[in-house]
Amino acid sequence: MEDTRGEIVAGENQNQNQKNAGKAQAQDLNQVLAVRREKLSQLQAEGKDPFQITKYHVTVHSMDVKNHYEDYEGKEVSIAGRMMFKRVMGKASFCNVQDKEGSIQVYVARDSIGEEPYKDFKKMDIGDIVGVKGCAFTTKTGEISIHAETVTLLSKSLQVLPEKFHGLTDTDMRYRQRYVDLIMNPEVKDTFIKRSQIISAIRKYLDGQGFMEVETPMLVSNAGGAAARPFVTHFNALDEDEKLRISLELYLKRLIVGGLERVYEIGRVFRNEGVDTRHNPEFTLMELYQAYTDYHGMMDLTENLYRHVAQEVLGTTTITYNGVQMDLGKPFERITMVEAVKKYSGVDFNEIHTLEEARETAKKHHVEFEERHKKGDILSLFFEEFAEEHLIQPTFVMDHPIEISPLTKKKPENPEYVERFEFFMNGWEMANAYSELNDPIDQRERFAAQEEMFAQGDEEANHTDEDFINALMVGMPPTGGIGFGIDRMVMLLTDSAAIRDVLLFPTMKSLN
Known about the structure:
Blueprint: H1 5-45, H2 62-67, H3 69-72, E1 76-89, E2 92-98, E3 103-109, H4 110-113, H5 115-123, E4 129-138, E5 144-155, H6 171-176, H7 178-184, H8 186-208, E6 212-213, E7 219-220, E8 232-235, E9 240-244, H9 249-257, E10 262-270, E11 282-291, H10 295-314, E12 318-321, E13 324-327, E14 333-336, H11 337-345, H12 355-364, H13 375-387, E15 395-401, E16 410-411, E17 414-425, E18 428-435, H14 440-455, H15 466-474, E19 479-485, H16 486-494
Parallel strand pairs: 3-5, 6-10, 14-15
Antiparallel strand pairs: 1-2, 1-4, 2-3, 4-5, 7-9, 8-9, 10-11, 11-19, 12-13, 15-17, 16-17, 17-18, 18-19
């Protein structure tokens, strides 16, 4: 038998060494943090408590000085930000101050700011927030800098930032401590600046098209408008259970009934589902509804909106995601679901007429289905299995089966299908649109079918909304509606790998 005792002892020694190193590191960090607390106590004892300062007059930001140096050379400026680097060299020192736009070097000389203030500056730490007043100049090495006249400690950092050259690389920690992530990783800050610009560009486009932005309830008694499980909460004042909305649809349609012909809302919705690279239980959805148009009108709007946003934010209609180029400048492809399934699987559902035929075809092609699934459900499963991944360039997939579209108007020439499309890019569903169902009798029948599905175990099925049916009975004009996943749109336009990369504070499992 091979003697492994030496290996076991070596392994144990290695583990012990790692534990000892971890303990030593923790002790070192505790000492550093204790020193920072002592510095704060000393400042407070000397009447220099930075937390007593309530404001600081900022005249410029770092990139203003750098990008328009000719306007600031030799002139007094005042900036504020976080100290990210400091090098003390006797009577003169350098530091780097980072603000919301970038960072700039600061030259701090004892003879310029005074002996006592210079002693205070030398005690400042990386991560402290400071205000600097001085003149813009260029160093001998050609770096645009500020020659400090005063340096004011505005906030004492009592925690240590990640080591400069490695940054904050632990993904879980980045999501949990986004504030540190934004400080250490400029590309992360740029992503969220672009996210804000994308939402602003969407609003600008829709406002220009005569749409009105509105707000609808988040707490609802009946969470409808999508196939999803809701979160349930309890409203103490009324002693009633409420749900967090899963969609914006049913309230926005009520507004169409009320005569607000073009409405949209950008807001959070909540779905009690799993978490992966494209799903977060709370996410940002935009839904809009336009009276007197149909799903073709929604296709035109989607093409124009995506082009406008890309051009406005990125300066181009050609985007690259994970090395793959997608062209928003060309007309988007339009294909029916039946055509897409035939194109990518070879199965023509126009030739399948019964549920039994659909089931046999599914078994033959190893597509799993449930007993409750009807022919239209199986068509949808085929689409997900064979077609979705191929839809890289902008594509509208039209004319879905009625079984999976409870709120959509039937196609007059073929009532097994509805006037609905999903918009795909990069193999992802980016938007979902309908010619909206406005027949209250048909709507009641659809709700009844959904209730039956719920009774059979489908927890994502819709429930009957009597007030919504009443609104339809009052009368809703022909209407086109669409829902856009804002987070996926931001992912594509910023080349971000996961939805958590475009959510400032994604849902995380508690550490407790």
